[in-house]
Amino acid sequence: MILGHKPRSEKGTFMSNLKPGHEGQVGVNEFVERQTRHSRFSHFEGKLGVVAAIAQEHLSKGIQGNREGILIVPVPADGFFSGVVEVTSTTNLRATFEARCEGEQPFVQVVATGADKLPAAVVELVLYHHTALTPDERTTEDEWELVSINARPTAEREPLTPMAMARNFLGLPGGTKAEYTAEEFAKAIEYWSQRVMAG
To answer: What does the DSSP assignment read for 69-138?
Structure first.
């Protein structure tokens, strides 16, 4: 499913058609429901309906992702937590071999057990326009669907994981076709060699 969202610094032609105050309603896609306090992912300490409302409020600030129909919306970090943990020699790590969801290929995932999630410093909400989702992927009737909460504990921009980039680059199930440079892959590998998700 979904999720290949390398933001661009400028707004694309898709965004130019949006008018302030007339951006469309934001709903909650079932995919984001996995992002809970007890998951390894970033999460919000509250209901996802509140997150959708926050996205709605800040929708006009969104920038287009790596293709039309994907919107990256920066929002205030209050109440959000990052699932990213910096690994040290004392971090307890656990590896699993599983798919993110049905229909995708399983892969090795490493998480930090017993690690506390850190309060987010930067939060970006990933929205998909209903035209960018297949009928099976749509779970609401709204124009936009919230599919991911991306939160990080520092202002440093966080690359996608190498596996997520490979999934997108190769067009594997669950990926969104995207192109990356060798430098982007290398930087992602270096970044994630020192970090894992809480789990």
So the answer is: TEEEEEE--TTEEE-EEE--TT--EEEEEE-SSTTSPPEEEEEETTPPPEEPSEEEEEEEEGGGS-TTT-
